[in-house]
Amino acid sequence: MSDPQALLAAASQYHDPLIGKTLGEARVGLSVSGSRLRVTLGFPAAGYRAALAAALRAHLAPVAGEVTVDVDWSIGAGAVQKDLQSLPGVKNILAVASGKGGVGKSTVAVNLALALQVEGARVGILDADLYGPSQPLMLGSHDKPTSPDGRRMNPIRAHGLQAMSIGFLMSSDSQPTIWRGPMATQALWQLLTETVWDQLDYLVVDMPPGTGDIQLSLSQKVPVAGSVIVTTPQDIALLDARKGLEMFRKVGIPVLGVVENMSTHICSSCGHEEPIFGTGGGQRLAQDAGTELLGSLPLDIRIRQQADGGNPTVAADPESPLAQRYRDIARLAAARLAYGPAADAAFPSIDIAND
User: Fold this and answer.
1) N or C end of the chain: smaller count of CB under 10 Å?
2) How far is residue 36's CA from residue 308's CA, in Å, rounded to a whole number?
3) How many whole angstroms separate alpha carbon 36 and alpha carbon 69?
């Protein structure tokens, strides 16, 4: 039988590439019973548990011989802005934002929400783009919310997600939202606080583009645990994305990382992949801003077709290569929310030279 303390000590020294730290540094939950190690992560990891268990068995073999490793997770509530309290029924609010429109933010948001769900979390999505709500179309639902008490609304259920959007309350898809800033801000607040969210681990908020009234009010009044910035590689998108990123930092909301959307175009006829919007933009933005690139996504006609058809990529085929990209990004963002920046990304490298 293995020495439990030696087993725990060895396990705590394992450097996990996803977390970016040793399990001990990240304070990952570890317990030992005989030759069985139980690992409790702070983020959903259905698509990662087997790889982590195998890596730990190999890491522990020289110390403890054959060890059984069980990997599970327990998602806690992340810290929020000062003087704000968590929303009832919601552990973590994740804002998905962009500096400008047209970068595919809403498509990324719904697929990240679905990816977190596939990974093992209870997830909801709030469509905060009151002037251009797109989540009802992407989720394939035009149901009207019901009320449990005449005051609050039950969220719409679609693909397993709990969802709310001003689009669910409109009489038609073509009905415009003609509101001044304060009216829109109040409407968003009501959608957020008067929806009966049912024990969510994550509520993904699909933010409107830009840094106007709605974005600022949401950032100051809503307990947001972390944000994800969506951009394309081209310079004009990067410029605006940096503004959105800095807005979150100014109000004390952690930026979990950058998602580079439309990083390459994949030809539907021959499969050729080409960076039509430039290369490396998302990585440069992340490095300049002191955060990290969570992942890159291609400009692929299937993503557009599936979203327009009300069956987003992760829901349509969760094991496909495209869905795996979303799942990898969602898992990494959730890991950063649970454990903070990777140890090797916490500080910039400094080169000292004698000229």
Assistant:
1) C
2) 47
3) 6
Nearest to 345 by CA among 297, 296, 294: 294
Rounded (5°) CA angle 187-188-190: 65
Confidence tier at 255 by pLDDT (50, 70, 90): very high
d(CA 32, CA 29): 11
* Domain presence at residue 248: yes
Burial class (CB in 10 A: 0-12, 13-18, 19+), 352: exposed
Q: Are 232 and 259 in contact (CB under 8 A)?
A: no
Angle at 163 between CA 106 and CA 330, to 5 degrees: 55
Mean pLDDT computed over 26-55: 95
Rounded to two decimals, what is the model's pTM? Answer: 0.91
Residue from 23, 61, 57, 15 nearest 41 by CA: 23
Element (H, E) at 197: none
- Cα gap 50→277, rounded to integer Å: 36
What SS3 string covers 247-291? HHHHCCCCEEEEEECCCCEECCCCCCEECCCCCCHHHHHHHHHCC
User: Which tens digit of pLDDT belongs to each residue from 279-294?
Assistant: 777 888 888 888 899 9
* Helices 181-193, 213-221: crossing angle, 10 deg rounding: 40
φ/ψ (deg, to 5) at 169? -100, -5
Decide if 206 contacts 126 (C-beta within 8 A): yes
User: Does 353 fall in a domain?
Assistant: no
Tokens read off for 12: 């705590």
In a domain, 51, yes or no: yes
> What string of DSSP letters covers 79-144?
P-STT--PPTTEEEEEEEE-SSSSS-HHHHHHHHHHHHHHHT--EEEEE--SSS--HHHHHT--PP
CATH of the domain at 68: 3.30.300.130
